Amino acid sequence: MYEHVTLGEVILTVTNVNESVSFYKDIIGFTHIELSEKEAKMFSNEGKLLLTLRENREAKKNPGQLYVGLYHIALLYPDRASLGTQIKHLLTHNIEMGGADHLVSEAVYIHDPDGNGIELYCDRPRTNWSYEENGMIVMDTKPLDVTGLLAIAGEWNGMPNGLTMGHIHTHVKNLADIEAFYKDILQFDVMTYFGQQALFMSGAGYHHHFGFNTWVRNKEKPKEAFVGMEQYTIHVNNEETFNKVRNRANKNIVDHGEAWFIVQDPSEMYIKVKSHS
User: Fold this and answer.
1) Most buried of the four, 74, 143, 145, 183, by CB within 10 Å?
2) Is the pLDDT of residue 272 over 80?
3) What are the pLDDT digits (tens) for 67-123?
4) Which helix (H) or strand (E) covers residue 149, if one does?
5) What confidence score (pLDDT) does residue 106 get?
6) Mean pLDDT of 183-205
7) Residue 69: which region, alpha, beta or left (left: phi > 0; alpha: psi -120 to 50)?
């Protein structure tokens, strides 16, 4: 259904906006930044709004997999060389990271100063992806070829052209409820399951625009302010498709405008759906 769906702005809560801007600028390479007293908007080199950082000095930093909410945002690099260059830069700055080869993609995992999870990854060509007999995509977690990536790394010069928001991964309360909401209301497809612990969904056959897992100890949202993700955005680049989804989501809409609406999923995450026809 979604041949041209893309992910847009993610709103993150941080405890110190200036400290966070320094990290996203110096470590990840954002240079197009609109900074106000308690908020920073961060754009790709092509001018697409990818991140909004909102300061809340009272928010608690992320203690790990404790509550429902953000697991990680995922920034998609245009190719292996740009990811290798980024990894080289992270090593130069002694940034703690993990890494994995997921067969469909290669990724490293880091955290911002507040513990918000960030995946930096590049895709393998779709022609190299494999599928089970039941149509589910084959994904795995294998050691990352860091040596190979570093061998093709260039000199780091900030964010590469073509960087986008690739996917969103959240801790959720219940996988069945999430699957029903994203499938029946938002019209996304299941791409694969990881046992009964995780679920991956997407539009137009992508390996996943959304990851969901039940790995947290508390299957609830924290009652006090925490850092993490407040909202993320889905761009639907077809007016007819947008109107169909808005009609299906009608009872779940919590706010709306002429070309956008906001819904809340079963794990209380806010999602803004925008028409970009």
Assistant:
1) 74
2) yes
3) 999 999 999 999 999 999 999 999 999 999 999 999 999 999 999 999 999 999 999
4) helix 146-151
5) 98
6) 94
7) left
Q: Does residue 72 contact residue 115 with C-beta atoms inside 8 Å?
A: no
Go through the chain and tell me how many residues it has.
Answer: 277
> What total number of domains does the chain contain?
1
Query: By the 8 A CB rule, do 27 and 93 touch?
Result: yes
pLDDT value at position 131?
A: 97
Give the pLDDT confidence of 45-68 residue by residue, as tens digits: 999 999 999 999 999 987 677 899
Going by their DSSP bridges, the two strands 270-275 and 6-14 should be labelled as unpaired
Please check whether residue 106 is in contact with residue 145, taking contact to mean a CB–CB distance below 8 angstroms.
yes
pTM flag (> 0.85)? yes
Neighbour count for residue 223 (Cβ, 10 Å) = 7
Is residue 36 domain-resident?
yes
CA distance 12 to 9: 10
The answer as to whether 207 is a domain residue is: yes
Integer Cα distance of 62 and 64 in angstroms: 6
Supply angle C-alpha 246, 49, 256, rounded to 5: 25
Q: What is the DSSP string of 158-213?
A: SSPTT-EEEEEEEE-S-HHHHHHIIIIIS--EEEEEETTTEEEEESTT-S-SEEEE
Range of the domain at 92: 6-275
Q: Which 3 state secondary structure label does DSSP give 222?
A: coil
Nearest partner of 109 among 101, 121, 97, judged by Cα: 97
Q: Phi-psi region for residue 133, left (φ > 0), alpha (ψ -120 to 50) or beta?
A: alpha
CATH number of residue 125's parent domain: 3.10.180.10
